[in-house]
Design brief:
alpha+beta; 5-stranded mixed β-sheet; 14% strand; elongated
């Protein structure tokens, strides 16, 4: 609240100063003081203001960029993020250098060629050499930047390593759903027509590979192992985003996308790096997807390989079919018995029979 009051006060002070300046100018016009000398003096004053704005703007840019560096430049937590970060800073320094140079010319010319009674215009219609320079140099630099980025983009969106952990991510208004393959190591097919309140990912249970798939409430990843995210959108365009992994990929309805990366810093290690015992990686939507977009957050937990293996083994017992046995009706008749075994439903039925028998005996 205090910061808002300070900002409003600064804006009000600037508005008063500007208004006073305008009133002074108008009074001068009314009193017919706006002679040739007055115009020259007024333009010189504005030219000095332009130079002050240039210097102040450049100073403020570098001051806040350095001061807030740790705020906007988060620790790197994946292998490909190192390359992405390098490309980012190369692009940043090139664009900053070009921006500063062009602003110096812009405000410098505004000051140098301000109105003076002795000034005369110089006719300068064309210069082939100059036009070739400012066309070819930007073209070469931009082509190099684009090709460098495209090479990395091709890698992270292309085929993942054979040992990659495959996980499906679904974005919808306003949450995330995750699906892992079961003991068979393969994700089952999906069909958008099978999506309902419970089967949020539209798992197609006619495919035998999906009978042992499970859906945890958060995204859990192994450290130092490639992870392939198969991404889908259910309603509007969402964006799978995490700044620590330098990861972002759109989740587009009807157009599956994918992105693979290798986490290098576990959640526990990042808590030590950030000195924040409550730190968690977050999966957030980076598209304005609706009125509750702000609340579309998921937790990402990165575990050491042995911890991940334990978590995976424990959670793969909680298959989608086991949690929702009523969906067994969607499994073809010739696959129902195998589906019950794969999903662990058969064990539940045996336990129920044993319990019933024990109750009858009593």
């Amino acid at each position: 609240m205090l910061n808002l009051i300070i900002v409003l006060a600064v804006i009000l002070i600037l508005a008063v100063i500007f208004t006073a300046y305008r009133v002074t100018t108008l009074v001068g016009v009314v009193k017919k003081k706006k002679s040739e000398g007055y115009v020259s003096k007024n333009n010189s004053f504005q030219g000095v203001l332009m130079l002050l704005f240039l210097v102040g703007g450049i100073f403020a840019f570098f001051y806040f960029s350095i001061k807030e560096y740790d705020t906007y430049n988060l620790p790197i937590a994946s292998e490909h993020a190192v390359i992405t970060e390098n490309l980012f800073w190369i692009t940043m320094w090139i664009t900053v250098a070009v921006f500063i140079i062009t602003q110096i010319f812009l405000f410098g010319f505004g000051f140098k060629y301000r109105y003076k009674e002795t000034n005369t215009a110089h006719y300068y219609p064309h210069n082939n050499k100059l036009e070739m320079i400012w066309t070819l140099v930007p073209a070469v630099v931009l082509a190099w930047l684009i090709i460098s980025g495209l090479k990395q983009w091709t890698v992270i969106t292309g085929p993942a390593p054979e040992n990659a952990e495959v996980i499906e991510v679904m974005g919808y208004q306003y949450a995330w759903a995750f699906r892992y393959p079961g003991k068979d190591g393969a994700l089952g097919d999906y069909d958008f027509r099978k999506i309902d309140a419970i089967n949020s990912m539209g798992i197609d249970l006619t495919d035998q590979s999906g009978h042992d798939d499970f859906m945890p409430t958060q995204l859990v990843l192994p450290k130092d192992k490639p992870v392939l995210l198969k991404i889908r959108g259910r309603d509007v365009i969402h964006s799978v985003y995490n700044p620590h992994f330098r990861m972002q990929m759109n989740a587009v309805p009807g157009m599956p996308t994918q992105f693979w990366f290798t986490p290098t810093v576990s959640t526990a290690e990042m808590r030590e790096i950030t000195e924040n015992p409550d730190f968690n990686y977050e999966l957030v939507c980076n598209k304005i997807c609706g009125k509750s977009h702000y609340g579309m957050k998921g937790i990402i937990t990165v575990l050491e390989q042995d911890e991940y293996d334990s978590w995976y083994k424990e959670n793969q017992e909680n298959t989608f079919l086991k949690q929702n046995p009523g969906y067994i009706s969607q499994v073809p008749e010739d696959l129902k018995e195998a589906a019950k075994i794969a999903a662990g439903i058969e064990n539940i039925e045996k336990e129920q029979k044993v319990t019933t028998a024990a109750s009858s005996f009593k």
